[in-house]
Structures are given as structure tokens and as C-alpha cells.
Amino acid sequence: MQIHIQAQGGVPIYLQVMQQIKYLVASGRLEPGDELPSIRSLAEQLIVNPNTIARAYRELETQGVVEKRRTAGTFVADSGSPLARKERLKLLKERIDQLLTEAYQMGFELDEVMKLVEQSSLISQQPKKGPSSHE
Amino acid sequence: MSDFVIDIQHLGRSFGKTEALQDVSLQVPRGGVFGLIGSNGAGKTTLIKHILGSHYAQRGWVKVFGLDPVAEPVKVLGRIGYMSEDRDVPSWMRIGELIDFTRTFYPAWDSGYATELTSVFELDVKQKIRDLSRGQTARVCLLLALSHRPELLVLDEPSSGLDPVIRRDILTAIVRTTTDEGRTVLFSSHLLDEVERLADRVAILHQGRILLDQKLEDIYESYHRVTLRFDRSSSVAPALEGSLHSDGNGNEWTYVYRGQKGQLLAASSQLNATVVAELPLSLDDIFVCNIQGH
After folding, report:
1. What band does A28 get if pLDDT is binned at 50, 70 and 90?
2. Given B168, B200, B285, which is nearest A49 (Cβ)?
3. Taking CA atoms, what residue in B is nearest to A40?
4. How confident is the model over B199-242, as pLDDT tens digits?
5. pTM value?
6. Which fold has domain B4-207?
7. How far apart are CA B177 and CA A49, in angstroms?
8. Percent of chain B with pLDDT over 90
9. Is B178 on the interface with A (CB under 8 A)?
10. How far apart are CA B6 and CA A62, in angstroms?
11. I need a labelling partner for B48 at 20 to 30 A (CA). Which of A111, B42, B69, B132 fits?
């Protein structure tokens, strides 16, 4: 599991960890039943406070993305797939909202934006993979 | 036993006419990482020296593990691992001699752990301190601070002037120390990205005074930065109650605001302004705002 943390970005670290794990689940790079690293080892790997990782895991558990199994550890929840679609939509919608806001601020109309999106999709059929950095 | 490993109340200290610390009250809870931040000359080292009992409190008092570190240095220092900013160790000693020498002061010294750290840090016990690089010296100091598995680890600017590899060793040591139940770390730094990564709680010391002392997660929630658009253009920022800093021109102004988000929104709508952008604040931004306000 690859997670990258940026301090000084203004996004709290526990949120960065949550967003990236959600993205990994949404994109299928983490599958239901996959085990997440222990709090301690992820904290050491990312060099962040263990409480921060614990908080991220706790909130992911509340949201149903992961589940704690007694004594065993933390795993991606079995309900991962329907939720993954919801998460995928949510991530995409956030990007679209941001794109539209910027487009309107620069004075573009919706049909112009649509045309640009179509053109871009012809050039790159495959969407690029990369962790979301926006909430 | 008190829940505070360090309890400082109304501490004051002057050197000649300079007031190095003024009415400093600070409580470091047991377990977790406490980050002390401040510019050079803010009083961080002076404060740490009071915790170690090398300075007595001229005003107020200092308790560490519930004890006065000046009156009971053996009981207090035996439970603290300390790494000083200047990392002063006797240059004529060999690493092995320094380890043996230091061990005699600590009943809880764990020789196995010291040996393990020697190899993890790639240190040669036969080498003399004077022949070591800055980074190797820092590793020796870290080894000496950790090998008795102290209840409280105090690091004064632990990574200043060090390369990223050694910085990583030091920061990893902080993470490891806190994953052990109940152990506490106090570290001072002006490198705010490491404070942001590691601290549970942060205090800002500026010109000998504590300006802020909060849990890191609460700090993020109590500061906001928004760009407001006003229906009229003006040459100075329209006054917004609670704002610490403003910047902009015409009808768009960006404010840094301390307080609840709801109050900020209410205050903006009273000024007939709409929020056009919201930018997260880093610890760096929050630090600068606090310093500039004084």
C-alpha cells in the first residue's frame, strides 16, 4: 500500500491518509479482505504520529470502508465494492465541481467545457491514475 | 500520579535585563508528542533547561514527574532522555567509552538496546568522537538519550543542521518512543513540517511567552482562511471581526480568521460579502499569523 503524505499542505494528515486509502479502495488497488498495515508500521513508514493513523483508521471504520477484526488487524470491508462506486462518483464529482468553478471564473460556458472534455477524451482514452489531493 | 509529566506554572526567568521567560504556564500530558515551536531566541532552550533542572525557577515553579528537578535531579534526570541542541559530548572519548560512561548514570540502561542501536546507526564503538561527522555525532547523542528507554524524551532542535537521512533516524525514534505505551516526547523545532507530522499538541513560544498551546487537530479547526468578495471596491480591507490578517485589493480580500467557521460565515454575510474561495492553512501559516500579531 503506497501512501504519500505532504505536511505543510494545510490538509490534516489523518485526512490525507483517509482520502488515499479510499482512493486505493475505489480504484481497486486495495480489494475487500486486504489487510492494512498496522498502525505502528504505517506510522513508522510515513513518519507521522501513530495517533494520527489510528484516527484515520477509526474514521474509515465508521464510514464502513475498513473493518477491525478482533486480534487480527484492520481489513478492507467486504462491503467495499458498492461503496467503492459511491466513492468513485464522489471523487469524480469533486473534480468536476472544481473544474466547472474554474471554468466559469475564466468565463467559459458549459458547452465549451463539454467540447474540451470530449476533445481531451479522444486524446487520452485512459484516465491517468494518481491519488486525489482534494477534499 | 498526575496526568502531566511536565507541569510548569507562571515560570519567569531573567538574564540581566533580558526577560527570557515571562509567566510561562505549560502542561505536557503523559503519552504522546509535544511540539514546542518558536523562532530563534524565543526561549525554547531556556525553557528546556528549566525542565532538566539546570536552571532554577526565579518566578513560578516547575515540576517534572511531580518532582522539582532542581531539588531532586537524580530522580528526575534518571527518567529523562535528553539530546541538546549543540550535541556536546567529550570529543576525546571513543564511542564505546562514552556509552560505558553514560550507562553508569542510568540504573535502567538497556545494554542490548544500546548495542542494537549501535548497529542500526552504523556506529563503530572504537571511533573517537572528535573524528565523527556531525550526523554521526547526532546519532551517538540519540543513542545515549534512548538507551535507558526513558519515560520522557526531550529533544532540543533535534534535526537542525542535519541531512535528511539522519533526520529520518531521529524522527523515527520519536515515532517508536510514542508507540510504546505511556512514553512522552517533548521536542522543540523550527521545522514546522516535522512538528505537523509528529506532534499531538503544539505550543508556540515567542519572546519568552506562550502564544498558543493546543492540540494540533484543534488548531486546524480554529483557524480559517477565506477570500471574500464584496459588492463594493475599497482601498483597505473591510473590517471583519475576529480576523488576524487580511490581504487583497478592490472587492476581493483574503482573511485569516480565528474562531468558529459558523461565526465567520455570519460575519461575512453581515458585510454583504460572499465566500469565493477557501484555502486551508498550514501550521506554518498559523505560526506566522501568531507571531505577526505580537
Report:
1. confident
2. B200
3. B179
4. 999 999 999 999 999 999 888 888 999 999 998 888 888 888 88
5. 0.82
6. Rossmann fold (3.40.50)
7. 10
8. 58
9. yes
10. 35
11. B132
